[in-house]
Amino acid sequence: MNKNSRSLKEIRLHGRGGQGAVFAATLAAEVVLQSGFFPQAFPFFGAERRGAPVAAFLRYSNYHLMPRNRVYHPDCAVAFDAELPADLVLNGLKDDGVLLINGAGSVLFSWNRAAAGKTVYAVDASHIAAELGLVASGIPLVSAVMVGALVRIMDLASLETMISSMQGKLPRRSEEENLVGARKGYQEVEEVKGNAAIS
User: Do the Cβ atoms of 130 and 102 come closer than 8 Å?
Assistant: First the structure.
């Protein structure tokens, strides 16, 4: 984003309880802050239980005055779980909006079709998190991986700035694994184009 303009960017993150969507919004806000913008991050909970759908919101601008309501028309929508309803995730996404999906394989085809006209990116965050041992109660903890992918596709910061922004903000016992996950998310996120990106 051009720091000389007052343009506001809004991101809405959708996940299930326990996946780390709320933590990811806070983590991304730290990255945005280190990049010189004013961030705002907050959650919205429905039924507060593990596995229930949750949403989190991130706004950032070079101007400190921003709306305080939920994000209804995001510039970017993020799905931490490819099994979430597409109409929920895509609701209100701007015509030139960007969609980021945690997923791989044939599931991406249906998302790409549902988001016709939008730019769709994907990263297999669950696989990356599981490989790194970032799992709790059988649920891959994908927050850092998804933040890495989000930072890349929204051009929020360089890889080095992102990593330094996250240091000291992650759970101490898994900080190194989360940093590796963030780096992998940043490096492995890819645009989905028709069938071309589907393995």
Answer: no
Q: Which string of DSSP letters, residue by residue, matches 44-96?
A: EESS-STTSEEEEEEEEESSS----S--SS-SEEEES-TTS-HHHHHTT--TT
Which domains does the chain possess?
9-191 (3.40.920.10)
Mind listing the pLDDT tens digit of every residue in the chain (199 residues)? Answer: 555 445 899 999 999 888 899 999 999 999 999 999 999 999 986 555 566 789 999 999 998 888 889 999 999 999 999 999 999 999 999 999 999 999 999 889 999 999 999 999 999 999 999 999 999 989 999 999 999 999 999 999 999 999 999 999 999 999 999 999 999 999 999 999 865 443 3
Long-range contacts of 97-104 (CB under 8 A, 24+ apart): 98/153, 98/154, 100/76, 100/146, 100/149, 100/150, 100/153, 100/189, 101/192, 102/126, 102/142, 102/145, 102/146, 103/79, 104/199
Element (DSSP H or E) covering residue 127: helix 125-131
Distance of CA 32 to the CA centre of its chain: 13
**Whole-prediction pTM:** 0.91
